[in-house]
Design brief:
The protein has a three-stranded antiparallel sheet with strand order 1-2-3. It contains one helix and three strands; from the N terminus they run E-E-E-H. It has one domain (about 1-45). The longest helix is centred in the last third of the chain and has 7 residues, at about 30-35. About 0% of the residues are buried. With about 45 residues, the chain is of the alpha+beta class. Keywords: Transferase. This is Methionyl-tRNA formyltransferase. GO terms for molecular function: transferase activity.
Amino acid sequence: MLDSFFVTCHGGQIEVLKAKGAAGKVTGAELAKELNLEVGQFFIL
């Protein structure tokens, strides 16, 4: 489970950085799983 994370955008690509945890970066698939999103789904933060 993600404690907290940062979402940054680089040239249209969304990059998710974990604030806590072993891994520094999270894939879109992992984020989708954590947030109960479908892969490719649009969402507004």
